[in-house]
Each structure stands twice: as structure tokens, then as C-alpha cells.
Amino acid sequence: MDTPKKQYWKTKLHDIIYEAETPAGKLFDVVLLITIITSIILVMLESVNSIDIKYHNFLNISEWIITILFSIEYIARIITVKKPFKYITSFYGIIDLLSTVPKYISLIFGGVHALAALRALRLLRIFRILKLARYLGASNNLVNALKASRAKISVFLFAVLIIAIILGTIMYLIEGEENGFSNIPKSVYWCIVTLTTVGFGDIAPQTPLGQFIASLVMILGYGIIAVPTGIVSAEYSTQKKSKKESKNQKVHLNSLSCVNCMAEKHKDGAQFCYKCGHNLHND
Amino acid sequence: MDTPKKQYWKTKLHDIIYEAETPAGKLFDVVLLITIITSIILVMLESVNSIDIKYHNFLNISEWIITILFSIEYIARIITVKKPFKYITSFYGIIDLLSTVPKYISLIFGGVHALAALRALRLLRIFRILKLARYLGASNNLVNALKASRAKISVFLFAVLIIAIILGTIMYLIEGEENGFSNIPKSVYWCIVTLTTVGFGDIAPQTPLGQFIASLVMILGYGIIAVPTGIVSAEYSTQKKSKKESKNQKVHLNSLSCVNCMAEKHKDGAQFCYKCGHNLHND
Amino acid sequence: MDTPKKQYWKTKLHDIIYEAETPAGKLFDVVLLITIITSIILVMLESVNSIDIKYHNFLNISEWIITILFSIEYIARIITVKKPFKYITSFYGIIDLLSTVPKYISLIFGGVHALAALRALRLLRIFRILKLARYLGASNNLVNALKASRAKISVFLFAVLIIAIILGTIMYLIEGEENGFSNIPKSVYWCIVTLTTVGFGDIAPQTPLGQFIASLVMILGYGIIAVPTGIVSAEYSTQKKSKKESKNQKVHLNSLSCVNCMAEKHKDGAQFCYKCGHNLHND
Amino acid sequence: MDTPKKQYWKTKLHDIIYEAETPAGKLFDVVLLITIITSIILVMLESVNSIDIKYHNFLNISEWIITILFSIEYIARIITVKKPFKYITSFYGIIDLLSTVPKYISLIFGGVHALAALRALRLLRIFRILKLARYLGASNNLVNALKASRAKISVFLFAVLIIAIILGTIMYLIEGEENGFSNIPKSVYWCIVTLTTVGFGDIAPQTPLGQFIASLVMILGYGIIAVPTGIVSAEYSTQKKSKKESKNQKVHLNSLSCVNCMAEKHKDGAQFCYKCGHNLHND
């Protein structure tokens, strides 16, 4: 369908957008990174009333520039990917869309509050540029340790929740509405605030019995914080050891990504995509 | 005493209620789980005044339905168990009774506050359905680690309590009633709030000397949190290793429970109950 | 100097007071334990105004009974020990004295506030009865782990203090008196409150810059809590291992204490005191 | 350029100031330590209004004495070092200058607030005297453990920051200005306060939905505190083991420092500076 020249430009653009190791690709990533961070700072500043009043025009124009840049990027991504629909429905595809849409909608419906803040989701795009997943690849054991302890931590958190509901109900009975424990959900909220040792103090027990039970809750919370820590710590140690033992795990990954299916983490020297079999070096 | 047909139905019902692996048993567990969670949400909503006023009738009727369902289940459990008295006096037997009784009592004495909240104890029944103990069986090392470190953690908590009483008394002497430390129990309460790094802030030292000692308390609390964490972490590591070493620990447990004595965690292929010797497969 | 009969009674009394393994010694310890705990509860209740007004006489008489009991015990201890002066100047000797004196002084000077609370120090006597040190002997690795990591934890706490002073000074400059950071010591206090994640909230940054730096302080505090935990955890693991390796460490200690020098933790079957050479079984 | 006598005195002075093992050097260090601590206490006291008014003259004169002492020390350091410029531009050189300058400037511009507090930076000089780095040398594994886990902790803190921004924005949308979440930066600040379990309570969610999300934030914060702890703990264990294995690491360092380039941590018996080749024992 495409002429060879068009095809050439598409491949070129694909390299710039999706690859991180060519000079152009690196530049693209850095520019994108700066744009995203600028955009987040703008969203933040806009929410500060005194700043918004003073610099409204500047903020508005900057936001339009960023929105247009993101729109161009979004379209470029759709064009250069071989399977655009797959990209559009992917996690990053949706985030990319949500990064551009709010400003356009505000043209029609006016500056809706919630829409403006939606732009903070742009922050999630940072993960793509930093390819944090790959960076974490170096500390894969941490991720593995968390995965290995996920089930246990879930059971632990579930137990914490049940403790919070039961103790929250007891506190509601003891303290009652006149001391701020106006209903069970609020008491449970207080109990979580206390168990996690956050302790806002907006609600605090006033009766001696309430303070006694609160003390038990605090000591309990102080004690059980040891559990997730112990689990992660032990699992992480295990991961480190097992990695040491199997030295043949050191497979070098390059930063190429397949033009066809967008798969990443190809082995060094790989000729074909491990996922779709597309020739990686011969587009 | 029972006719064979009656006996058949009793066994059938027993399977549904106590076993988790037949389709009927699974369905029963799921329905019970939903009922318990619904009932807890109802108790919570009822305690919120604004909701209670609006939807009083709906909440009242739902509560009656749940109470009747629980009553039926309670009676069914008594009938199908061979030793009903043992069930009634068991932990879950009492919880089951407490789950149904409050609504009936409210008929006679009116909607007593404390009774309503008693229903939150229904939450404890969740543990039976989820057979959490068994699920935790997979992460048995955690339980063992906690058991192994129980004694040390007790000594640790006891030491924390003594520190709290002595430092609380000192703070009472320094700060006095005018700064909120109105008596020793309250000062001890404040000390626990601070040692556990909760820090509500409803009572806070105002004098320079008081703030200096408070700083010491905080740093102490910040330091000693390392102790239980270190213990659990190390014990857990040990448990993991010892488990690895003894591979013959992997005894598969099934989800049967004895009709005679309600014992659970029978080995796979066990013919007789390990507790009372009752034939498990030949009721 | 002493007649044989007197000598006999002294040895008898010494056994009751200082030994824990004879029936009389055990009874003495239990009675003393109950007296101490009762006395602490009395001190606490006395500090609560509403209770003190109601039950003043009861509290006063109980306190006199306890004071007299403690006085008798103190004199008995002096008589039965071979080196009374050593006992009087020892840590527990001073605590014992401080446990009895306040009530007598209150006769002369009236019920001075501070004196009353001094009685809370009686709690320290519990350690002697429980011989907690020995109980901890079972979990000696914990004590060793803490000892081994003492130096590092000191350096760590010292670094925390320096961070608190420097960041406290910065916060004082940024927030100033109008936001509660009225002087540097108070700012440092706030900084410790925040670093240890206690967070009373009686002083809280109000300016954007102050809140930004506060965020850094919090994340720092959240991060460095890992350090003491990691140290204790690792040291404790090491202690456990080294204990396993050297099986010949299991030296059984008995609960005898030398009549001559009061040294404890004699090996089972030891004939002479390891400290002063006094014959342990031949008083 | 220098006469032999002058040269002799310079070397002598260098030994006193830079070496810690001669009696004169030790005395110098102790005096300096006391001066620095006194000076910090003065800065602190000066900031307390009530004290400053009472003892203004005493504080002012003491401060002048300390400033002059520090000035003399600063000049002496410049004279005795072979490469003065390198010292002046070094970290400690700048700290030393900042320790003396504020009081002189206050002569011209009056007692500027910020200048006074700048003197708190003197505290940093303590690190030089204590040669904490060397002391930590004993617990080098801790430093290595922190270095080894630096990358992972950075990624972790970065993830925490992103979570804080996104959850902060959500809380801003839910709670809004009327409940204290007046703009996104403030909401993010609140989110960090909560995630780190500090919980000042100056801002606290009021709406049920806000309290529900706050509960999630707290449990998240409570859970992820396990991650840095687990990392440091595991890395520290590894460091300890690897140190045990390689016994030949025990290189004794002496406390000499090169007159030429000020390099420290020379091996015992080293004849020449490892950095600049200067003869260490033949000045």
C-alpha cells in the first residue's frame, strides 16, 4: 500500500519514537521527558488559585502548546506502528489519549475541574520513556521478591482489614458520636489511621477505656509492621541467592523494539522478534 | 434413632455445609460469604445516621432476612453434626449464635445500640468459609516464624510497656495538667502514642524540657521498631531454610472434615479421622 | 559476731529473698510482684483527680501499707546480705530505697507532687523479680545482636541528630515564628517529630517551600528507618547462625545467687562463686 | 621560599591541625570539638527570644570569641597546607569559611536573621574532627550495603513520588478546597505526609470517599515501608558474608594525612602518598 519512500519515513519515524539508542531516539526521549514534567508542573501550578489568577494566559497558552505536541506524538505513534488498533487499546495508548483529550473537551464544555486534573495522568507516561521496567530489570530480584511475597502480603492486609473493622466497631461503641466516632465506617477509618501508625489526630479517643483500647491498637500496629518487612526481606535474600547460583541468567538485552508487534527486551544479537518472528534488522 | 432416609439427608446436608469440594458445598460457601459481607455492610450503613433515617425500612427488612438465613444455617449445623453440644460450645458455634441473636433480642428490648454493633462479630465467620488457616498453610513458615518469635516479642512488648509507664510518669511531672498531661494514665497513653510513632497530637508537650524528653521518646520508638522486625525477619529466613532442607514435609491435606468431631486438615488418602478415629469415607 | 541461731535465720531469710527456686522463695517473689504492681496502679489512680477525691482515704492507707511492707523488705535485704554497703549503693539498692522514702518524706513536707510520682520507679524492681535478664538468656542472640549493632546504631542516631539540627535550622529560617517555628530548638524538635514519622501536628509547615522541605524530611525519615532495622535484622541472623554452629555453648545456668557478692548466673554444679570464690553451697 | 625555621613551624602546626594521633593533635581536636558544640548551642539559644533578651551581651561576646577562634584556625589551615587554594575550594574549606563570615558581615549589615542561622552549618565540621568516615570504616559493610542498594532505593523513592502526585491529584478532586486540599501541590504534600505514616493532621480528609482513599494510601504506605527495609537488610547480610569470606581485606589504615594533597586513609607503613606520590614521612 505504501510507496517505498513513505515506507522509509515510517521506519525512520518508528526508530525515533520507539528506539532509545539512536541519537535521534535519545533526543526524542529527552524532549518528551521534559515536556511531560513541564506539563505536570503546569497542572500543579494551575490548581494554585493565586498563581492561576496572575498567570492565567501564560498557563493556558503553554497548556495548548503541550496538548498540540502530545497530539502530534499520538498521531505519529499510530501511523508508525504496524498494528495501530493494538496500540490504541494498549495501556499506554489509552494514557496517551487521555493526555491530549482534556484540553480539547474544555473547548466545548469549558474548563471542567476534573478534566484539568485528569492531565496528571500524563505522569504515567514517564514510565515508558524511562523504560523503568528495563532499569528495574537490573534489580529484578526485588520485583521477584515482591511477587513471591504477594500472596502472603495479601493475606496479611486482609487480616489487618478485619482487625480494623472489628476494633473500629468496638471503638464506636465505647467512644460514641460525642467524641468524633460518629459511625462505624468512620471508626474503621480511625482504626486504619492508628494501626498504620499514621495518626492524624482529627479523631482521637477521649474516654479512659477508649484510650486503653487505642493503646492496644497502636502496639498491635507497631508489632505487625514487622510482618511485611520480614517477608519482603527474607524473600529478597532468597532471590539474591538463587540468582547467584544460576550464573547463566545473564542474558544481555538490547533496547530494540519490534516494528511489527512492539515487543521489547530482545536478546543481543537476536535476528528475529521472539514474539512474532518479524525480522528485527531488516525492516 | 434416625431412619435411613433421615440419615441420608443429614449426611447430604453435612456435606453441603461442612465440605468445600462438592459443587453444592462450594455454592453454599459462596452464598454464605456474600451474606456475611452484605450483613457487615448493612451494620456499617445502619450506624451512619443520615443513611439510617433515609433507608430505615430497607435496612430493617434486609437485616431480618439475614438474621433468618443465619438462624436456619445455625439450626442446620446443629442437626447435621454428630455432637451438637460440642459445636454449640465451640468458638465458631458461639460466633454463629451471636450472629443471629441480636435482632431477636431487639424485638423485646428495642434497638439497643451495643447489640446492633455486636453483629459486626459476624465478620469472624469469614475465617471459617475462607478456611484461611488452610490457605495460610501454604505460607506456614510465616506462622511458624511468628510462633518462634512470640516469646521474644512478648518480652519486647513488656519492656515497651515499662518504658511507657516510667517515661509517662516523668512527662506527667514535667508537663503537668495545664498542658494536657492531666494524670499518669493519660501520660502513659501519650507515651505509647509517641513510642509507636502514631502521634495523634491531641496531647503534645509544650515546655522545652518536655519537648526534649519527647524527642528522646520518639528516637527510642524509632529505634526499637527495628527489634520486632529484625526478629520476625530472621526467624522467617530460618523457617524458609529448614523447610527447604526437609523436603518430606510436603504432606498434602484435603478439605474433608470429620462428621464426628469436626476435625480438619486430614492427609490425602486418610481413611480414618486422626483425632477421633471415625471412618472419614464411610458415613 | 552472730550467734549460730541468728546466722541460721539470716541464711534462711537470704534464701527466701534472693533465691527463686525454693517454695518460700517463689512465694516471696509472687507476693512482691503483686505488691509492686498494686503499688504502681495506686500511684496511677492517685494522679487521676476524680478518683483521688473519692477514694482518698483508701488510697492513702493502701499506700502506707505498701510503704511499710517495702520498708521491712528493704531492712531484711540489708540484714541478710554479707556486704550491706555494697547492696545499698547498688542500682537495685537505690531503687529499693526510693520506693519507700517518698511516703515518709510526705509526712514532713506534705504530699509533694513530684515525690508521689517518684514511686513509679518501683516498676524497675519488677526486673529483679522476673529476672528478665535470665529469661532473655534464652533469647540471648537478640541481646547479642543489639550489642553487636550498638556502635552502628549510635553512629546512625548521631547522624539523625545532626540532620535534625541542620534541617531544623533551615525550617526555622523558612517558616519563622508566625507559623509556630518560634526558635531553633523548637524547629529541631519538630524535625525529630517528623523524621521519626511521629507527626504530632501541633507545629506544621504552612508555606509552600516549608511543605516541600518537610516532604523531603519525611521521605528521608521513611527511608532511613530501614537502616537500624536492616542492621538488627542482619546481626540477629548472624547471631542465630553462630549459635547453631557452636553447640557447646549450652551451659546451663542455675538461679542461685552468691550470699557474699550477690553475683548471679552460676553454672549448674558450680561449687564456688565465679566472682568472689565464696562457697555457694556451704554458707 | 620559606626559611628552615618557618618551614619547621609550618610542619609542626600542620601536625597539630591535621593529625589526630600526636598529643597536641588530640588536644587540638578536643578543643575544636568543644568550641563547635558550644557555638551550636549559642546559635540555638540566641534564637530563643526570651533568652536572647536576657543574655544578649553574653551571647554576643561569646559569639565574637568563637568567631575569632574559628578565624585563626581558618588562617592557620591555609598557611600550613601546601596547596591552599585546593583547601579553600574544598567542601570543608567552604564550611570553615561560612563558619566565620556571618558575624563579620553582621557588623556591616546588622544582625540579619538568615546569617545568624547560617552558623548552624558549623555542625558539619564535626564530621571532620570525629573523622566519622573512618569510624564508619569499622562498619564499612553498612556503607557498602547502602551504596549497593542506592539505585534500587532511588527507583523506589521515585515510584513513591509518582504515586504521591497521582493520589494527591485524586484527593484534590475528591476533597476540594473546602476541606483543606486547596491545590494539587498541597494535596501531594498531604499524600507524602500520609504515605510516610507521619500524619500531621493539619489537613485530613472529611468526605467518606476521601477517607476511604486515604485508608488505601495509608495501607499502601504501611506496606511499602517493607521494601527499603528489606533491601538494606538483605544487602547488609550479603556485605557481611562477603567480608567474612575475603579475609585479606583487612588493610590497616593509619591516621596520617598528606601535607601535599591532604589525602587520608594511607595504608600502615606506606612511605608515599597514594594520591600525589609525596613522601609521607619526610616532610
From TrEMBL, chains A, B, C, D:
Protein name per Swiss-Prot or TrEMBL: Ion transporter
GO biological process, alphabetically ordered: action potential
Transmembrane segments: 27-45, 57-76, 104-124, 155-174, 212-234
GO cellular component terms, A-Z: voltage-gated potassium channel complex
GO molecular function, one term: voltage-gated potassium channel activity
Alphabetized SUPFAM superfamilies for the sequence: Voltage-gated potassium channels
Classification via InterPro entries: Ion_trans_dom, VG_K_chnl, Volt_channel_dom_sf
Coiled-coil zones: none
Location of this chain's protein in the cell: Membrane
Domain annotation Ion transport: ranges: 26-243
Domain of life: Bacteria
Keywords of the record: Ion channel, Ion transport, Membrane, Potassium, Potassium channel, Potassium transport, Transmembrane, Transmembrane helix, Transport, Voltage-gated channel
